[in-house]
Amino acid sequence: MPYLKPYVILELVGMEAITQPTLNFTDSALVRVKLLLQKPENQGKALRVFVIGGGCAGLNYSMAVGFEKPDDYVVESDGYKIVVDRKSMQFLSGMQVDYYESIQSSGFKFNNPNAVATCGCGLSFKTSQKSDIQKAKPCH
């Protein structure tokens, strides 16, 4: 299954490559993003992926439709944009976002290599790095 890899190597220092953070969307996730952003009320907007404090594990994945900001990381596919603020990207770099549909439910699924613990709901996670926004609260 191909993944959108939005960032490339910027430069080589000695024999070590320096790269930008990555965020990968599966084909099914990109199809769903495009469907959301094609709605008339979302013209010219982007899907924002971000992290907020809370949940059982301390951090929650969130998404909202909004406008791109100058310091955002931007993933673009077929003219549609997905944006991540710099603070959130420190928790999301390398993450894969998928979209699933079943008889019982549908939604985005996050596979985050930075997560050292997750809640059963799949929306709350904890990383090894310390942060002022990472505060665990009961989900239910």
Give the gist of this structure:
This protein is mostly beta strands.
What does this structure look like?
By secondary structure, the protein is mainly beta. It has helices at residues 27-37, 86-92; strands at residues 3-4, 9-13, 16-19, 23-26, 46-54, 58-66, 73-77, 80-84, 95-101, 106-111, 115-118, 124-127. It has one domain (3-7, 17-127): HesB-like domain (Hypothetical Protein Aq_1857, Chain: A). The protein contains two helices and twelve strands; from the N terminus they run E-E-E-E-H-E-E-E-E-H-E-E-E-E. The chain is globular, with a radius of gyration of 16 Å. The model is unreliable at 1-15 (pLDDT under 50).
Please provide the count of β strands: 12
**Assembly state:** single chain
Side-by-side strand order of the widest sheet:
7-8-5-6-12-11
CATH architecture assignment: Sandwich
Number of domains: 1
The chain-level structural class is mainly beta
User: H/E order of the elements?
Assistant: EEEEHEEEEHEEEE
Low-confidence stretches: 1-15
At the first level of CATH, the class is: Mainly Beta
